[in-house]
Amino acid sequence: MNKTMFQFNENDQQQLKALNISQEKVNRYLEIFEEGIPFSEVCSAANINQGIEAFTDEKLHDFVEKYDAESQLKVVKFTPASGAATRMFKAMHQLMEKANSVEEFSNLLQKEKYAGLQKMANQLDELPFYDAIESGIENFESLNQTEQAYQAFQLMLAENGLGLDALPKGLIPFHDYNKTTVSAFEEHFYEAAAYASKEGKAHLHFTISEEHLTKFEAEFNDIKNRISKETQVEFEVSFSFQKKATDTLAVDMQNQPFRLANGKLLFRPGGHGALIENLNDVDADVIFIKNIDNISHRNNLESNAFYKKALAGYLLEIQEKTFELIQALQNNPSQEILDKAAHFLQDSLNVDQDLEDAQKMIHHLNKPIRVCGMVKNEGEPGGGPYWMVNGKGNTSLQIVEKSQIDLNNPEQASILTDATHFNPVDLVCGVKNYQGEKFNLLEYVNPDRGFITEKSVEGKALKALELPGLWNGAMEYWNTLFVEVPSSTFCPVKSVNDLLKPLHVSGQHL
Fold first, then answer.
1. DSSP for residue 393
2. Which end of the chain is more exposed for a tag (fewer CB within 10 A), N or C?
3. Domain final residue, candidates 111, 144, 166
């Protein structure tokens, strides 16, 4: 765009000040809308032995032992949990808005778009909140299967019923244990006890919507003593919200700032990429990252904990070697040390540049490290592991979303079809340097790797800007390692009928 800066009126300036957003930042947003966001340039898919490590069972056990032996580590389980349950019940809402009778309900269920809900209608008794449905509907046992499902769907959505879609996703009952329902939020405490506790203490951090804080705190106060007694682990919990300063300006279809009817500029939450700010505030040696809805039945807990610990042990091993090399390179390194560092950078950290001197090597070694679990692609939507040209022109391992790849480019599209693995958001992060100081994670973000989407507000079309995704552009300049983990470690709940999948009903993966 032309570099003429947008002229903010006095009310705009007051609004920006209240949000702690600078005029320079807003003008940069306007430039991004005008210029558009270029597609990512992928070079090849990362597959086994080509960017993704597939360790033997023996090696995985070694990593677990290494992690377990480090009793003094400060470990935090970081869980993005701000999502509302609205999307989980989107299809159900669409169905029930059209179904004004049992007959209409039955006919609509036959449509392919409602296949998941038809399955749920036939398996109501496998839902974790079935007892609440049964007791909430008068003469439930006397109704036929279709009538039961019709009234059950109404009850789930009704404000004076179960009101499930009005809850944050983390507080939806996900599992049932002998008629005791457990929310996704509660399950993460059992996970933390299994792999993120040290010396009898586990630290959990949840990023949530501010309006849900009271509900999460009440749930924690209700469950903490019982889970501590069961697990013999003391839990320390903290919450944070997306910072208002990470909200992004919306524009109209002509790329001009979008104003609401009251004349105010419209700012929208910047997406999960905004959480790099929250992650940057966490003080820990090792940080596990996993979404709130990716939590399986507790029958699978031991297996999941094993792989999480293995990823952490691998991180510690790589971190240890990295720190040793940095210190050796700082002390008049010999040719042997230079060769050793060059091989480590290339073979272990996937750095593809020719590095001639110690200072360049130290620069590439001295970065935050993330180890990312990767599962075989079984058709789930989302990002995957690729070799990509990063914002500094270097080829590196990255998690790339399908929307970031130019599918109209035959060469790029063919690379997409070569992908064998999928990103389940299963990360273990090392965020301290060789001197034990915390990295400023904001320095490792590629700010030009966001997403532009189309929305509507007050009946008008607009463009919205999402910040670079937390595990995409927000971590683009980290040192990245990919490790294959079993598909059983991945069981997201994107729609309510996902709760009928085996990993949620019994913990078994089919």
1. S
2. C
3. 166
Q: With contact defined as beta carbons under 8 Å apart, do 299 and 484 qualify? A: no
For residues 275 and 155, state if they share a domain: no
Query: What's the burial of 225, exposed, middle or buried (CB within 10 Å: 0-12/13-18/19+)?
Result: exposed
Q: Give the amino acid at 243.
A: K
- The conformation of residue 262, written as its DSSP 8-state character, comes to T
pLDDT score of 158: 93
In angstroms, the CA 93 to CA 90 distance is 5
Whether 186 is covered by a domain: the verdict is no
Helix 213-231 × helix 184-195 angle, to 10°: 40
pLDDT digits (tens, 9 = 90+) for 278-337: 999 999 999 999 999 999 999 999 999 999 999 999 999 999 999 999 999 999 889 999
At 507 the pLDDT is: 59
- C-alpha 387 chain-centroid distance: 20
Please give the helix or strand (H or E) that residue 171 lies within, else none. Answer: none
pTM for this predicted structure: 0.94
Report whether pLDDT(2) > 50: no
Q: Could you tell me if 20 and 127 lie in one domain?
A: no
Are 394 and 294 in a shared domain?
yes
Find the domain containing 147 and state its range.
Answer: 86-166
How many structural domains comprise the chain? 2
Q: What angle do CA 141, 123, 375 make, to 5 degrees?
A: 160
Last residue of a domain, one of 151, 166, 181: 166
Alpha helices (H) in 22-114, listed in sequence order:
23-35, 57-69, 90-98, 102-109
Please tell me the distance from the alpha carbon of residue 257 to that of residue 34, in angstroms, as a whole number: 11
Using the structure block, give the residue that is written with the tokens 């609509």.
108
